[in-house]
Write a structure and sequence with these properties.
2 domains; 8 helices; about 0% strand
Amino acid sequence: MKKELFIVLILYFIGMISLNAQSRDELEKKYEQLSNQYEKERNTRDSLKNIFSVKTEQIDSEKKKKNPDNDKIVDLMAGSVSVSNKIDVQNKKINYIEKDIESVKQQLHKLYSSKIDSLESLKKTGKEDSERLDDEILLLTEKNLLVAPRIPKLSFSPEKILGIDLNKAKNQKEKTLYKEYLNNALNEVDMLLGNVDLQISEVDQIVNLQTKTKKFLEEAELEGNMILQSKSNQTADINAFPRLTEGTGVTGVSNDFALNVKTYQLILSQLDIQQLSKADLKWKTSSDGMNRNFSAKEYQKLLKEVKKRLQEFKLVLANKTGSSK
């Protein structure tokens, strides 16, 4: 009886593993489809905005003439209203897609995290090939980082924060409003630091696994002067980040990941910190800069710089609110 129950449990867990894998494949495919659709709708909206801008310029130009053609102006205005309505429709489509993408990302994040934990536990048993497990963990960690939630930029003005002195408030009401503003900013910085710490943890694991893989390949080459072709193909771009290929569901550099990079840079800028050149961070704020292969170490450096500056600003906020005492 016990043996039969054991067999049933084994079959159940095998089925669950298969179901999770299937679910993950489906979600990755859905994420890729939604991302492509998102880009398509955004491009359509950008084209409509360009048309609207041209029509607006034509209207202004016609109005400035000595003898403006009113009929032409009316036609142009009617056309611009039509384009404006189409832009509104596109914005709604984009918003719906964004919500779907966020939902899929959350599901993928849970699946990736769960699978990584399982692989880490399996690795500790020593019953499986450690190198193969490291490769799987590396790939899943990269995927997990790509579906990380979007990072919000700072909603408060750091310059205004620096100019606030509770002791110089005109009255109690003003002091209460300023303190509430400072506390909200402090909570926001805490939340951002939590997000940054989570991403630093993930990218640290990527850097460590990449370093370990690179060292293994170098040692294998020295010892046997021969590396398997599958491994040889990885050496040329071992430090590239993310190094995802077609068929994985999450390919290249995701829009959300690229936006997070730009947001982190914007946060540094919002804090009035001119550290990008000093820290030798090779990141571009333009969209063109998002298409190249990233180095995990570059991203690691950016995250640590953001964390350092947020911690400094948190100290300023804590001193102003008196919570550091």
